[in-house]
Amino acid sequence: MPVLVASDLDRTLIYSSAALALTMPDARAPRLLCVEVHESRPLSYMTETAAELLGDLGDSAVFVPTTTRTRKQYLRINLPGPAPKYAICANGGHLLVDGVSDPDWHAQVVNRLADECAPLDEVRAHLAETADPAWVRKHRVAEDLFAYLVVERELLPEEWVKELAVWAENRGWTVSLQGRKIYAVPKPLTKSAAVRELARRTGADLTLAAGDSLLDADLLLAADRGWRPGHGELADADWTAPAISTLHERGVLAGERILREFLRTVRRPS
């Protein structure tokens, strides 16, 4: 039976230059591989060792990139190893099969959101009304499913984020602060639902997962085993669960460690 490995990407397997956390002396820093270019500029990296491990993982398990990114943002990533047959984008809103969104899955998601939570337009209007232009740089909508703001983190009032979270909770939405982005995401829009569907399709009897943010908590809880790095929202909250391993590594070296754990478990599932 295949093993399904569903992993978040940003700040879990791949890292921007600002998130690398290269705290060692320069001469001891790991060699890096650029895996994403945007507007002709390098954007995301993993260590060369992590790239080799990911190649091995792709040969040994059903590896599923599982991201809050839109399809367009995901497709500009050039991961090493075999091209994944499946990917989960927009926090579970799109299930890609050979790079193409499964229309039946997307329709199920859209119908569930309409039934269970406040509409996107209401959330967008609230963000536009309450977010201060002094610290907001961009208002964005992703795949007509959820909204996010790009902010100046050092100017962002902590109290505003807390108030937004309470407001969203009462309307069936959740809020996640990741770096310079604040996400407002419908609660039924989850990575875990899409992963369960892929486990059904592939017949996987073991599911592994990794992630760093609040939006990854449901993914980790749905897996048979999960890992979180020593950075991110979940680490800041000291979040854990019985089947979750908490790692000490931070930054790009955490991505390497996560891949080692995936491979070790795939090869010795017990």
Q: Tell me the overall shape.
A: globular
Distance between the termini: 14 Å
Strand content: 25-35%
- Mean pLDDT across the residues is 96
Spatial strand order of the main sheet? 4-1-12-13-14
Let me know the largest β-sheet.
5 strands, parallel
Portion of residues within helices = 25-40%
Strand-pairing-aware structural class: alpha/beta
Number of H/I helices:
9
How would you characterize the overall build of this protein?
By secondary structure, the protein is α/β, with parallel strands linked by helices. The longest helix is centred in the C-terminal third of the chain and has 16 residues. The relative contact order is 0.18. The model has no long low-confidence stretch (mean pLDDT 96).
